[in-house]
Write a structure and sequence with these properties.
This protein is an alpha/beta fold. The protein folds into two domains: about 210 residues, FAD/NAD(P)-binding domain (3-Layer(bba) Sandwich), CATH 3.50.50; about 210 residues, 3-Layer(bba) Sandwich (FAD/NAD(P)-binding domain), CATH 3.50.50. It contains eight helices and 23 strands. Strand 4 and strand 5 form a beta hairpin. The longest helix has about 35 residues.
Length: about 425
Amino acid sequence: MTQPVHRTTVVVVGGGQAGLATSWFLTRDEVDHVVLEAATAAHEWADSRWDAFTLVTPNWHCRLPGYAYDGPDPDGFMTRDEVVDWLAGYAPTFGPPLREHTAATRLTEATDGGFVLEAVGPDGPETWHCDHVVVCTGGYHTPIVPPWAPTLSADVHQLHSADYKKPEQLPDGAVLVVGSGQSGAQIAEDLHLAGRQVHLALGDAPRVARTYRGRDCMTWLADMGLYDVPVASYPGGVAAREKTNHYVTGRDGGRDLDLRAFAADGMRLHGLLDGLVDGAGGSTVRFRPTTRAALDDADAVYNSICRDIDRHIAAQGIDAPPPSQYEPVWEPPAEEDLDLDLAASGVTGVVWAIGYRADYRWIDVGVFTGQGRPTHVRGTTSVPGLHFLGLPWLHTWGSGRFLGIARDAEHVAGQVVAAERAAASSLAGVTRLAR
């Protein structure tokens, strides 16, 4: 059977919100393109979030090109299932050329210009020739677990946060959650509210207040323009792309995630997890003595953001409730217990919430750093025609959120359109000279 070979101007790889937003602009500008999606459109919102998941950004942040949240609670926080339903309504509004169950397997530069993309669709292998590729697969591909995790006692059930759905997935008993970013902190809360004894190994994630001086903090920050600052102008520059997001929750209408309050209510907090103490098959893990520093640093960021909001309120003359400062409600002991025998402590499960590793091995084009991350300026690489979209801090802090996708997609689609017009103009000039 002959392998199908297709030709189009643009291949968009990934049918999530970034890929669909790109398609919206290409459709508007009448650019021939296709969107290849390995599973189904926006499937990761259902597949990789736990049952009690809610957005941490207010619903009014949910904006895609030609499509915005218009429900009854703009300052609320949609649940996972509500987000899935909202996204499901997007594609029908403009009819993107979407090919689901079609996974990109290799991308190379064509010898005569443009790209060759190999894929596997419902009917088997297929090949696409195109002038432009927009990679919209995000940067969270391979769940990270420590290299020694497979040697942990077989009596301890292990899950990555990508696979966690609900407390009942784990055997009865205490649970160790490793990582205190957005996923780790929220999963630890989910287990804590379910009555589980939780041990939480803290990382270096900062935190932010849910509401401050009468408004949601993220609404204040949007008004202050924080989500519009280009990464190159941000303190630390492109290093901001490596930062962990602030932990907070939209659960039950939204609230702070105060790990100290959880500790006062029985959660056990630990420092950074260092490794397994008693060798293969053992169950004793060791932590670094960083609990106090992790909590203090997270609270310092919390209070710093509040002070930034204070300055904005003063500068704009806004009538708002008086300022306040977070004061710790719990302190860790001066001498931390650095070893935890999981078996003796009744820990039957571990949830790894230490992030993901990008995997672009299917892209055989030289645009990556030694760590496998794409190098780009606002999504456009040094190889003409190859772009990325939907990455955290692609251009601004808002890039990894619904709030910033439309702007980024419009820019990248604009680069494609400009290149096509330039190519058409050049061809027209050559044709005239040949006459």
